[in-house]
Amino acid sequence: MNSLALFLARFQFGMTAFFHFLYPPLTIGLGTLLVITEGVYVFSKNQEYLRITRFFAKLFAINFVVGVATGIVMEFQFGTNWSQYSSYVGAIFGAPLAVEGLFAFFMESIFVGVMLLGWNRLSAKAHWVSTILVAFGSTLSGVWILVANSWMQSPAGYKIGSNGTPKMTNFLHVVFNPYFPSEFIHVVAAAWEYSAFFMAGIASYFLIRNSKDIIMRKALKIAVVSGVIVACFQIVLGDISAREVVASQPTKLAMMEAQWHSQSYAPEMLFALPNNETESNGPQLAIPGMLSMLAYMNPAAKVMGFNESINYINNKYGLKLTPAMFPPVWLVFWSFHIMMYLGFYFALIMLIALYLLLKNRLYDSPKMLKIFWFTTFIPLIAIELGWFTTEIGRQPFTVYGLLTTVKSVSPNVSALDVGLSTAMFILIYITLASFAVFLFKKELRERTEGKDKLAGDSSVKDGSKEKEVLP
């Protein structure tokens, strides 16, 4: 494979992760918030929480449908551009994907239908159970996708067979590989955080127009209370996830922190302009000893530099990798650091909002409401940057230490083939994203104009009795 085809293949691998994780985070997180809002309704009989649930359930449904479509598109890539990858790891990689499709996705899909169509057919508690199962199914679906991805980061539970490909020896070791626990909690928490900001942003959109909107006041309150918890804990969870990178992928750590040379009292780079040609940083701002402290809880600990980490990998796996085979350090560095800075921004915003909420000034604060509206989809950018760091930082491997990208691509695929298929996938994803945005805007417009029938005049069952939903 020529250098252009390899570059495009790596680009497609990164873009695949980018687009595939556009929609599942909101499905996972918003499903959990729907469980909370409907649960409050079930036990309080407060119709306002039912209206919150029904409105955001429509937005959930739009995101779910578009997310399913993007997942289908991604599956085709394994048999077109990545046939050698599929052949090499199919015996292991296919197992969690099969479990996800046969159990988690089908359960989620069935109960999404029950949740959306069962408002007037089920009792309040029975419908709440269906919402719980939707949230559980979406999270479980994410679990198995993360099992597959984390195994690519830290392979476990396998042995190399007589044909030179890995064979599963222990399914539990595959599932609970070293990378899985930290990746799981970090990704799911990110989904909850994104969904809290999504609900806060949508609620703020309506409160900017009418600060007396009781329904959206309650939605914003739920979003802030849940969001401040997860946003603050996410900082800790991100640190835990980074520690696994320290343990298993030293080259990724070196690129994330622009550490060119091994050193004790390694600094935490706050700002840097990494230069691969000179193997140094231009203007930089750093905290001495902080990286050593964060990585090993010892400011004097030695952190492996970029070149030494490559030598370490070569010795460990019997390879002959060179720095030129790795992605530009600046790309991984800035993907990681922008994500990290956004994480602190999210926690700060939620803490300020909680303060205003406790002072009963949040709903009448135009500046805070506009910040929430502006930030609605910013957590998604942080999530995508996190996946850029994870996937691009793993290069030149598709399966760390076992399979390189150059050996994963279909043998007869040219640079033109990869380029055209990448352009096609991007076009499909952009079309689907535009469709989702159109439907989101339509729902917001209908509620603004008072045409929101789903959250309006209809009846819901509560045991054997029916109650009218307030218009």
Give an overview in words:
By secondary structure, the chain is mostly helical. It has one domain. The chain contains 15 helices and 12 strands. It has helices at 3-20, 24-44, 47-80, 83-117, 124-153, 171-175, 180-209, 214-248, 250-256, 290-296, 306-317, 329-358, 366-375, 378-392, 415-448, and strands spanning 158-160, 166-168, 263-264, 268-271, 274-275, 280-281, 285-287, 302-303, 397-399, 403-404, 459-462, 465-468. The strands form 6 sheets. Strands 1-2 form a two-stranded antiparallel ribbon. A two-stranded antiparallel ribbon has the order 3-8. α2 runs antiparallel to α5. The longest helix is centred in the N-terminal third of the chain and has 35 residues, at 83-117. The N and C termini lie far apart (63 Å). The relative contact order is 0.14. The model is unreliable at 453-460 and 462-471 (pLDDT under 50).
Provide tags for this entry.
single chain, 471 residues, mainly alpha, two-stranded antiparallel sheet, 15 helices, 7% strand, globular, disordered C terminus
Largest sheet: 2 strands, antiparallel
Mean pLDDT across all amino acids: 86
Q: How many angstroms separate the termini?
A: 63 Å
Multimeric status of the protein: single chain
Provide a brief overview of the structure:
The protein has 471 residues and is mainly alpha-helical.
List the helices and strands and how they pair.
Layout: H1 3-20, H2 24-44, H3 47-80, H4 83-117, H5 124-153, E1 158-160, E2 166-168, H6 171-175, H7 180-209, H8 214-248, H9 250-256, E3 263-264, E4 268-271, E5 274-275, E6 280-281, E7 285-287, H10 290-296, E8 302-303, H11 306-317, H12 329-358, H13 366-375, H14 378-392, E9 397-399, E10 403-404, H15 415-448, E11 459-462, E12 465-468
Antiparallel strand pairs: 1-2, 3-8, 4-7, 5-6, 9-10, 11-12
